[in-house]
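Assess this:
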Amino acid sequence: MDVSTLDEASSAESAVDIGKVMPIAARNGCGRSGGGGKASCGSQAGQGDLPTEIWEKVKNHPCYSEAAHHHYARMHVAVAPACNIQCNYCNRKYDCANESRPGVVSEKLTPEQAAKKVLAVASTIPQMTVLGIAGPGDPLANPKRTFKTFELVARSAPDIKLCMSTNGLLLPDHIDTIANFKIDHVTITINMVDPEIGAKIYPWIFYNHKRYTGVEAAKILNDRQLQGLEMLTERGILCKINSVMIPGINDQHLVKVNKAVKSRGAFLHNIMPLISAPEHGTVFGLSGQREPTAQELKALQDACAGEMNLMRHCRQCRADAIGLLGEDRSAEFTTEKVMAMDVEYDLQMRKAYQAKVEEERLARLAGKQEELVELATNMSDINLMVAVATKGAGVINEHFGHAKEFQVYELSTTGAKFVGHRRVDHYCQGGYGEEERLATIIRAIKDCHAVFVAKIGGCPKSNLLKAGIEPVDRYAHEFIEKSAIAWFKSYLEKVQSGEIQHTERGEAAIRQAALISAA
């Protein structure tokens, strides 16, 4: 397709100040099948749970498959600077290397620069399987730049999946182009289905050469979002819905959003916490709007999980992120460095490397299944959570003091379910532990019974034990899920023998963590 024929009359690229800010069965979206609760699709589904054509689309997509995010990388290219709506949680920043959140980039790229960068990254990181365009504005407010980038990449690297994230305002106008470019994955940010609530989130939109505000703006936006979602699912394009949880504004309302997007065929729902640190300069950040706690986020996700599967491994990536989820290697691929590279795209090398990744993935799954066989004989109804320090690859391979985040798993006799991640500051700074930071880490994982680490020092170990959190380092460099299930099996045996007494992590744990913080 010649992207020069695209009509940009609907684009806000020149009108808005860019310095400102297969079809789903029965259109029921993604849920659970039958009375057994087996996942029919979603972030944790496996090959046996999905139709073959859907599995092929998600098996190595780190955002659409929770299992894949341990093994496969993604990259975003910042070719879409203009935006056609204003969100109270967004402040786009350019030439910024110090923040990790959506809308932030270090460099803006032309389509030609972006295409070469994709080839350079894919040659250096052969497990990079997905190219996404997510800003820093909106891809469909910049249609020529967006689709020209996809055209160049598809021509040179046909094995890479194409993906875009949009606010959805112009989505109905570009359905044919999206389908013709074989963009199989589209993410739409939908934060409300009630314009009264939307007016508290979006000050204005720019649509059909006119600026709208308040409830009228929110109604136009939401109507267009839901229309675009329906049109995409009718074409067999997988749709993930992003929703930002804003306490006191849309937190309870997102249950209705969840039902609305499921009924229109959405594949996956990603409920993300608001980021509102004042230093980011957003309206919500400057007005004192608080972020949700990790526990509040999990409770909302759990409330929606009965309707459809939830993405819980999102890292709210920058618009120029590169690498596995949770890491950013964009500094290795600046425009200056990429333009100086002599890139030779070796498709066969990439296929061979990814075949080895699949072998590792199968080995991880086999280890998990071995532990599950023994666990399945236990009839306990105990359900608890554990935190894991990891650098990635599904392995317990991070020192407690060096962890930037902890991945949290929920354990029961059905296995280990990933439920989210908790960002923290490094405990170890220059070889010494920061006691104040230790207190914040304990608060972050206060609802967990144990924390799995590759290594841990005596002081943090002692404080964790006082808070009722068991530090576990005997599974260093082993697979997370296999290790967590083995530990849980041992835990149940100790409970049943009377060696230990199981207690729920709740208000008592919160009080204990607070005492440690005060000390």
